[in-house]
Amino acid sequence: MIIAPVEAIAELFGSEGARDYLGEPVTVAAHLLQAGTLAEAAGAPAPLVAAALLHDVGHLRGADPSVAEPSGRDLMAGTDNRHDARGAAWLAQWFTPAVTEPVRLHVAAKRYLCAVEPSYFGRLSEASVYTLSVQDGPMTEAQASEFGALPYAAEAVAVRRWDDRAKDPAAVTRDFGHFRPLLAGLPRA
Ligand code: FE
């Protein structure tokens, strides 16, 4: 049976995404809805709003039910779950690089910003500082200039900044239903 992408994503937001916390004061689903809401409020184009909304789907085991790989809980226990690459690969079933590349690069964007923006590290949440240590730490100067030249590097940095702000337990956000038409209207891979 082929499940429509929006239904598959809705299922994740409603089930596992509503339970997982990953060391932040919000669930993964609430975090993603906040990131998507911030991207939309910033006037981002639809694929970039989708990338913000979906950047952490790789934390949810349901995003890849065929593989018993680590989930977000393992990341917090010190094993890099490669949620960036796994989330992007899952989304690539349906969506174009304008959605999947910022997702794939959003952890690298954190390592990049630590290298190029001295004040950035000090603004990271405690959980993000911890996971940075599991994810190879800040980039070197050479790695940062290589990253900055990649297609979608700027979009990945934008997602990263919304990601960092999307951890407010008191934030009022759009619900998943609000984003359904936007997701359904995206060009298909
Ligand atoms: Fe995130």
How would you portray this structure in words?
The mean pLDDT is 90. This protein has a single domain, classed as Hypothetical protein af1432, CATH 1.10.3210.10. Helix 1 (5-14) runs antiparallel to helix 11, helix 2 (28-41) packs antiparallel against helix 3 (46-54) and helix 3 (46-54) packs parallel to helix 6. It is globular, with a radius of gyration of 15 Å. The chain contains eleven helices and no strands. The longest helix has 14 residues, at 28-41. The chain is an all-alpha fold and 189 residues long. Fe (iii) ion binds next to loops.
What's this, in brief?
The chain is an all-alpha fold. Helices cover 56% and strands 0% of the residues. It has one domain: Hypothetical protein af1432 (Orthogonal Bundle).
